[in-house]
Amino acid sequence: MRILVTGGAGYIGSHMVKLLGERGYEVLTVDNLSEGNPWAVLYGDLRVVDLLNYKALEEVFLEFKPEAVIHFAAKVKVPESVRKPLLYYENNFVGTLNLLQAMQRAGTKYLVFSSTAALYGIPQRIPVKEEDPTEPINPYGWSKLFAERAIRDFSSVSGISYAILRYFNVAGADPEGKIGQVSKEPTHLILRAVKVATGQIPYLEVFGTDYPTPDGTCIRDFVHVVDLCQAHISALDYLQKGGKSDIFNIGYGRGYSVLEVIQRVKEVSGVDFKVVYANRREGDPPALVADNTKAKEVLKWQPKYDDLSFIIETALNWEKSYIHCQ
Ligand SMILES: NC(=O)c1ccc[n+]([C@@H]2O[C@H](COP(=O)([O-])OP(=O)(O)OC[C@H]3O[C@@H](n4cnc5c(N)ncnc54)[C@H](O)[C@@H]3O)[C@@H](O)[C@H]2O)c1
């Protein structure tokens, strides 16, 4: 099967390209390299194309004629989306519209879309189910919700089948250590924590200690990046077998508090690093945990790495090796 991966040079996309390559899929990456790195694309060709450049995108589609697209390309920084909403709507929403049009031109049948648990805003219940209300609280979340809507509407007239995957907190790195998360301004908890543990950042901030949770810090559902990528392969199999277009939460269904994660990073790394307690950040829900029943039952998703220590260990190993490449 020929698969075009947008954003395949980025963190999650590069793990996806590796998994697809290992499984024998024919893969092509489209990325504008605004965040991604060419060295991270381990299988297939990389085309440096911006989704906003429709002509160039269409050319790639007509040449490669993908049967499926996995669409990761997006701007992903929540605070930046608050400062520059139009940039996010253009890149994430208009970019998706261009992609849908190019898919139709090339006769591409299947789409797996990277969505986010940020759509749920401040959830009314935990764990969160797919049918729960979607009320994003920042332009990043809205840009993803608009893209979801466009995909759903276009699917009914174009015949494109889709699986929308709403990711919870993605973390960890390739267990073989070939690729991992690279970010100039890291905001993700586990990434920041391993950067502190390896001496690249002086201390770790905890934002808010007065949430209505057992230890007062936020609770999140961390999913290993390779298990997340496996969910995309399960989704493609499902669509290929005629499965109906649908939305799926991807998380383990178990939450850890910020303090629990910090304690575990200290244990795994053996470094007792400095932690600084700060005020709450605007827009952080107290808890965000997936109900993943649908992904397990319908997509037959079988995660392998549901182990916080393993997630941290792979992130830490990557960080240690990446320091030496810089
Ligand atoms: N990391 C997480 O925890 C998380 C959680 C929920 C959802 N997601 C979603 O997963 C996807 C991948 O996220 P990531 O963490 O790997 O981010 P990332 O920034 O590492 O990867 C995104 C990639 O897309 C490329 N890109 C951006 N805009 C583009 C455009 N207009 N044209 C072509 N390429 C473009 C970037 O260069 C980058 O390589 C995103 O859609 C994001 O919204 C991520």
| Overall morphology | globular
Assigned CATH class of the largest domain? Alpha Beta
Largest sheet: 7 strands, parallel
CATH superfamily of the largest domain: NAD(P)-binding Rossmann-like Domain
Specify Rg, calculated over alpha carbons: 19 Å
- Say which molecules are bound, naming each kind only once: nicotinamide-adenine-dinucleotide
Content-based structural category = alpha/beta
The SSE order reads EHEEHEHHEHEEHEEEHEEHEEHH
Total beta strands: 14
- Distance N terminus to C terminus? 36 Å
Low-confidence stretches: none
Q: Averaging pLDDT over every residue, what do you get? A: 96
Return the CATH topology of the largest domain.
Rossmann fold
Number of continuous helical runs: 10
Q: Strand share of the residues? A: 15-25%
The helicity comes to 40-55%
Number of domains: 2
Annotated CATH architecture of the largest domain? 3-Layer(aba) Sandwich
**Strand ordering within the main sheet:** 3-2-1-4-5-6-11
Describe this structure in words.
- Helices cover 40% and strands 18% of the residues.
- The two termini are 36 Å apart.
- The strands form 4 sheets. A 7-stranded parallel beta sheet has the order 3-2-1-4-5-6-11, with helices on both faces. The protein has a 3-stranded mixed beta sheet with strand order 12-9-14.
- The protein has 10 helices and 14 strands.
- The protein folds into 2 domains: 2-171 and 222-250, NAD(P)-binding Rossmann-like Domain (Rossmann fold, 3-Layer(aba) Sandwich), CATH 3.40.50.720; 189-220 and 253-321, UDP-galactose 4-epimerase, domain 1 (Alpha-Beta Complex), CATH 3.90.25.10.
- With 326 residues, it is of the alpha/beta class.
- It binds nicotinamide-adenine-dinucleotide (NAD).
- Residues 7, 9-13, 31-36, 50-52, 72-76, 91, 95, 114, 116, 167, 169-170 line the site of nicotinamide-adenine-dinucleotide.
